[in-house]
Amino acid sequence: LTSCQTPGQIALTYSEGPSEATMEMLKEAQARVTFFANATWLQYMYGATRVHLIGMTYRLPSDSSAGLTDDDVKNDIARNSRTIQDLIGVYPKYMKIHESNLKDPRLLNIAKSMGYTLVGFNMDEYDYKYNAAATAGQIVDVYSFMFSKQMDAYGRKASYVVAGYDVPSTGAAAALPKVINTINANGYDMVRLDGCTNDKNPYKKDPIQNTGDVGDAKSFGAAEYKHGQNNVKAVNFSPSNNKGAGASSGGSMPVGGSSDGAKSANGGEMKKSIASRSTAAATFALALYVGRL
Fold first, then answer.
1. pLDDT for 23-43, tens place per residue?
2. How much is the pLDDT for 160?
3. What's the pLDDT score for residue 44?
4. 245 with 47: CB under 8 angstroms?
5. Can you give the pTM of this predicted structure?
6. pLDDT tens-digit readout, 168-185
7. CA quadruple 86, 88, 92, 94: dihedral positive or negative?
8. What are residue 36's DSSP bridge partners?
């Protein structure tokens, strides 16, 4: 999955997170996104489960399926899925594969056979590269460039699945207000991945068996499903209270995406340092940036 079914739709997806700053800005914009939960840091996902779609980020033990049977891999995927289900009440269906595992076709085939929908991207917002308040505007420039390039070449809107990392060491939260306003100005509609794919059942019935899918009250087509966005003004929050998941840092990634899984290793391995938690410097820079919008 690397694009939406309907031109003019844009699905922002975030690995890790969500930070409190991101949640506040999405609330103000009345916008919906998709967060991919890392089972290790689930305490940060609770607030997102009420309105946003929750997928799963999966990483193989030792980053390789070598030495593991198919059942070993299936059971490890299911273990991660059950951990998320304990928090949100349903099993995730949409999955991002950790970038170091993208060249493991056996893993990809096993995940597909279990009924998981593998998610890639066709726009990278480069939030891990533009990771300070001073450079966060360049994340917005990525969106503007992609929108204008599409219109110049084809005279019509495209659809996008955007890859982002909502952690303190990236510029995702700092850029988000202007990102939302740029999306609005270009006439795009923010959707969760279930809206992107017209999927009324975006969760699995079982973590290991491919026995069908289920929806909830906020799934596409249900009464409480929401899409779209409002312009965002200043969002005030205390830097000391801006909490998020582990930090990420690392290499160069392409704006284009991979057909299956998370960000392509061809653009350079993104080395995550999840052990590093939110830092005062990153959150203070974010407060300054948001305060001058």
1. 889 999 999 999 998 766 665
2. 98
3. 56
4. no
5. 0.80
6. 778 898 899 999 999 999
7. negative
8. 15, 55
Task: Provide the 3-class DSSP secondary structure of residue 165.
Answer: strand
Q: For residues 206 and 6, what is the distance between their CA atoms, to the nearest angstrom?
A: 29
Cross-strand partners of 11 = 161
Angle at alpha carbon of residue 3, lines to 54 and 83, rounded to 5°: 20
| Beta strands, E only, the chain | 9-15, 34-37, 53-58, 91-92, 94-97, 117-118, 123-124, 160-165, 189-190, 203-204, 213-214, 247-248, 272-273
d(CA 108, CA 103): 9
Cα 286 to Cα 20, 250, 278, distances in angstroms: 12, 20, 12
Dig out the tokens for 100 from the structure: 């170091």
Q: Which residues of 198-218 are buried (b: 16+ CB within 10 A; e: fewer)?
A: ebebbbbeebbeeeebebbeb
pLDDT band at 132 (very low <50, low <70, confident <90, very high): confident
